[in-house]
């Protein structure tokens, strides 16, 4: 029987489910779809010589001894077959033992996805949030057998980035205006008002601060806040519940920080809409902050958030900020954080006692998440075993319902990739008339790359991509060697390599040049005079001089000195690059110099599969003999740029069927090549932030299928198409101050 799983653990799970204790593993291999295992039940296996292989030999008869020696090779084949059968059976026993060990694992085991889900449920997070997080599980963590330190660090990052807090408390405190604390009865609004006021006073003094109360229903409510106002030495004003805040503005002249303590109302009280309407009455802008009691039941908290936000919307307002109260009374912190994350609220402060102002702290997402995960409670045995969500069924259809994740991914891409905002600006040209597209594209590209962005250039081949009528654009690199997300169209640049090199140096101070093919004599001489760093990927047939004789690079490869190996990716999969080098003399094409050639270093690379060691490709490079930097990053950059034309071609073809509207060819090419550059960068990057971003993209775009770089390209394409649809619907990202 043939079993196919996303990974070895999943395939083994299928084997156990189908064959149980009788499972015998015959073969396994990695495929583009995952891991394939060939197995059979032991009871169906043909009889082997196991039962006879250990029998005592019978006495040899005279007739047997008389058999001619010519019959021995037939006997040797039988013995070899029996030995092979015995080895195969032993391997089968080993695999059965492995299966038994897997079954004997404690219930806390399971796939990596199941373990992450269980950890979040034990902490108190909801299944909905757990499913969302595990949908973005990186392939690097998909095979972990236990949630070790690295796995838990990933989980903390995933949860904390979904919990928005204040980057800087000073920015919040320095913002002038009116803040109204709202929420149900008993949530702690009055005490929190005093704590928040104390923070303002500590920063700005008493003169610009004022307190306002609208609570005329609760006995002693005015007096409680008045005591705080006297202690803090700030004035307090009373406002009837049906009065707009603008009625007090005349009396509060000179007050830049006004905090309103509102009357508590049940989330089911229809007067909540009226209350928020009065707070927003007149021309005064009031910032609403929702208080959430962390000791409340999750269902109650969910209802509070939903009803209060609906009321604010009905009154023409919006609730984007919140404060957690009564943290010292809560058994678990995860439920309230879960609700805040799922509703996209920003958590300002956490209140944990009655003391003013000591018992309130700035919300620190990482610390809060670590606290939640440190206080996990094992699930009851009656609780069904959590299962990882089937991310293979996720596609673009439900991206519209994940606007917050969409915005998070886009923001991460903007922060990571230089000129990503330029690529977004090109996508913004969709739907515009062709003449407007041309005008805005000219204005956009006139300022690209921006000063200080481009420190080097990756010059693409000056010929059309096979099967297309366009050439791959050039790509600029920043000081760290990262590709700029918005490439440069070839037809918009000056003719001649030397002229392009001079322009890049003059306008962008580009001092590193990566080329496909050896530069011509004019450009080569110019590079030599300028003393710039450069590297050319060349064909093996290039003839160079070594030890006074001219040979092709292919002929000289056996003479090169091995220098080691480097990790890389090739065609979307892990690989190793074996390197060797040899000093040579190079004669540029069209060179008229009298001397024999240009002193250079030839580099030879063999790309091998990281797992099997199988040779996949060979590459050859030429660099100057005197290079003011390590050549290995330049060699790797050229090798790994091989994939850009292929990815750009795929994106170009996909855009044709993406209902993107009328597109100028140059706009479409920039979109396609930009997607290719971003996808390739994310596939190649090895840091943890890239790992998280890859997983997030693949989770949004429908899982991990095909080559990873191709899957990333498809996900980016869907991301941009959905972003564009949301933008045209007027539901763009909301910016909060």
From TrEMBL:
Compartments, as annotated in UniProt: Cell membrane
Location of the AAA+ ATPase domain: 175-373
Superkingdom: Bacteria
Keywords: Bacterial flagellum biogenesis, Bacterial flagellum protein export, Cell membrane, Cell projection, Cilium, Flagellum, GTP-binding, Membrane, Nucleotide-binding, Protein transport, Transport
Record bears the keyword Glycoprotein: no
Predominant place of localization: membrane
Cited InterPro entries: AAA+_ATPase (IPR003593), FlhF (IPR020006), FlhF__GTPase_dom (IPR047040), P-loop_NTPase (IPR027417), SRP54_GTPase_dom (IPR000897)
Pfam families (UniProt xref): SRP54
Membrane topology classification: Peripheral membrane protein
Keyword tRNA processing among record annotations: no
Every SRP54-type proteins GTP-binding domain range: 176-374
Region (Disordered), start-end ranges: 43-75
Coiled coil location: none
Biological role stated in the UniProt entry: Necessary for flagellar biosynthesis. May be involved in translocation of the flagellum.
The family this protein is said to belong to: Belongs to the GTP-binding SRP family.
NCBIfam families for the chain: FlhF
Name of this protein: Flagellar biosynthesis protein FlhF
Organism: Billgrantia aerodenitrificans
Gene: flhF
